[in-house]
Amino acid sequence: MGVNGGIFCTVLLLATQAVGVHAIAPWKKLHVPLKNHSEVIGDGGVPTTLDGPFKPMTVPLDKSFRGNAVDSPDTDPLVQRTVKGCLTACCAENNLAQNQALPIDTIFKLPVPVNTSSWPPGGGFASGIIDLGGLQVSQISKFNKIWGTYSGGPGNQGFTIFEPSGIPQGFFMLGSYSQPNNKPLFGWVLVAKDVSTNKRNSPTLWPPIDYTLVWNSVSKDGPIYVWLPIAPIGYKAVGHVVTTTQNKPPVKKIMCVRSDLTEQSETCSLIWESDNFNFYDVRPSNRGVQASGVKVGTFVAQNESANLPSIACLKNTNYIPKYMPNLQQIKAIFKFYSPSMCLHLDEKYFPSSVEWFFSNGALLYKRSQKSNPIPIEPNGANLPQDHNDDGAYWLDLPVDSTNKERVKKGNLSSAKSYVHVKPMLGGTFTDLAIWVFYPFNGPARAKIWFLSPFNLGRIGEHVGDWEHVTLRVSNFNGELKQVYFSQHNKGEWLDSSQVEFQSGNMLVYYSSLNGHASYPHPGLYLKGAFNVGIRNDTVQGDIAMDMAVYELVSAEYLGSKVVEPPWLNYFRKWGPKILYDIYDDVQKIEKKLPGIVKSAFESIVKRLPSEVWGEEGPSGPKEKDNWNGDERS
Fold it and tell me: Which pTM was predicted?
């Protein structure tokens, strides 16, 4: 089915739904379900495996790919609630949850434990303590359970609140930790110690003067009382205290932090909600390589209408790169965690090295000399090196059709990963952004109800495709805490407990067919609604890219120790801009529609993204906002 048919089918179906007309698919061809694939409906939703159209079940992943965590339950509760009805299923689910193990009942550990001998010596990396400027902090991952509930939140499995345990001598609790029950326990909070030179007159830590009760509940799960510390003047609270009695906790139970060592925080992921009262993970509002905000690991409990969190984050007033890994430690980290990327079995457009792309006929075009493109040096030495993206230059495939098609397909044997290392969250974490280059991005693929997948003609195609995943490693101990998966114009962060590993701690992830977006598990990921949208298909197969073959292209904090290749400082587009003449096709479709559908059709067309109308090569890694900032999520 070509581009016209694809647009017509998608828009017509959405239009009929928009005006309340029952949509009956007139097509003869039925969809054959993907075999052994999980299906994710929505943007980064919960994987649900379907065997046939109505039978919900879960197929465990290959256990050699998983960390030390429990498997998923045999039946997906989200699907079961839809089939059985909410009242019956929810009640049964709550009763079962209290009598059977939940994911959070398992403490997640990496397949190969991290210890001090895992990393070469030198500097402050993985020393266990970070000095923020008169305030030392340590990362605690051992907890005592305080309270939990078994419904609501992600997966309707509830959430649990913990306190840090095993706090080192001289350190103090800053707040409690909480997470949803639908994933293994794998969290942390910071504890702090005052090491300032003026403890008598201006200590960095001070107890609260009192507490405010912000939320309480008495239910079958037991009573809970959530307290917000009232900080003395010149100090701020950075976490909550939780009790199971109505008595206020002792004021010395927790410490507040001197205001100059704090920054504004913002809510991040939702942990749990009840009657317009929410529990959120929090993070610094300002994040980037130069930003000094430090995540504490605590949560905030507040009304849904609250504009800003009632707790702050910490601030690193020291030299931010002080606890970053040195060159030898970077090499050790990458060897310890280097990913393997699984490509789709039907993939036609493979990655290659940048050098292969340049050496096999890629051309540099100049707007004022379009008819005279020039070859590119293997390292990009003859590319423009200024920071302007004014449209004056762009790259393209070879001119002759034979070489053009050959280069489009890439060259997996030459492919390597390009690594950018940067400080994050005030230098308490190291982000390793791992970039992969594809000479060509294939066409978008559509899903419409039960129809077989089909390409949307030229929609989604462009020359030059940069994709990446990011490993977030703790500078306290070198442990991999999170992984970011880029998915077109944004992506998602997942804890290490939610991803797949093989051969020790080596991450495994999946590249989608044609579009090359990154996903943590094999299956169908649909960007759309009502079972209509753009498909992102991934599979677990034998075609993989070993990303241990890499080039460290940038680590600005190390200065001249890492030399950036010239192509990295090319700030123009990696492909040409091409406009499609499909507007006339849309008008022809519109003329054939009945009046009741036409207005809805017009409103849908107006909402179509700009990339539907043409293609444009992407910018390089260094021009992305996440090069110096945090990832989009």
Answer: 0.83
